Amino acid sequence: MAEYQLYCFAQSGNAYRAALMLNLIGADWEPRWVDFFGTGEQRTPQYRGDVNEMGEIPVLVHGAKRLTQSGVILTYLAEHSGKFLPQNQDDRLEALRWIIFDNQKVNGFLGPYRFLRNFAKPAGHPAVMEFLKGRIDNTLGILDKRLAKGPYLVGAGPTIADLSLVAYLYYPAAEFGFDIAAQHHNIAAWLDRIKALPGWKHPYELMPGYPLAQ
Prior knowledge:
Layout lengths: L3 E5 L4 H12 L4 E5 L11 H6 L8 E4 L2 E4 L1 H12 L7 H30 L7 H22 L12 H6 L7 H4 L3 H4 L1 H11 L7 H4 L8
Parallel strand pairs: 1-2
Antiparallel strand pairs: 1-3, 3-4
């Protein structure tokens, strides 16, 4: 058995944060596929009793530890490996600020928008989609402006803040109906820098469950 096990599925940007981090630090890890769209395993009493009471993905198992919430997982892996960890207290607080911004705003709007457009049945109501798209445009504008100031979000090198915020941005433009990289040049250059890191893989290559069974 690998040192780490990650409950995940290919379409989850939240899980991709953790999977990408594990791959970039060279961890000995293995995915544990959750059939989110089929059996809805995450909603079962067994999953909520034995894996994650919140019924969410990802879940990282490391020995006796069972960690949930991607920001917690990223922090744990950074502290355990010494990689992608902000270098001082000010940088750690700044990284946390951007991780919270990601969860509330970038992922908070982009994740539901993509889900409602591609996976929900019925698809999202046009008024809801229009609302979310407006918020997405605003939050991506904030991120692009920040990246105009430097190659990474915090300091001179990549940290867990970067690995959190890239999570949904490598999924195909067709899934969003608009091209994030084409519209935001600083984000595009930043995504290329992260993609160049040893161990980077696309979410559909890194985690099981793609393509979805018809």
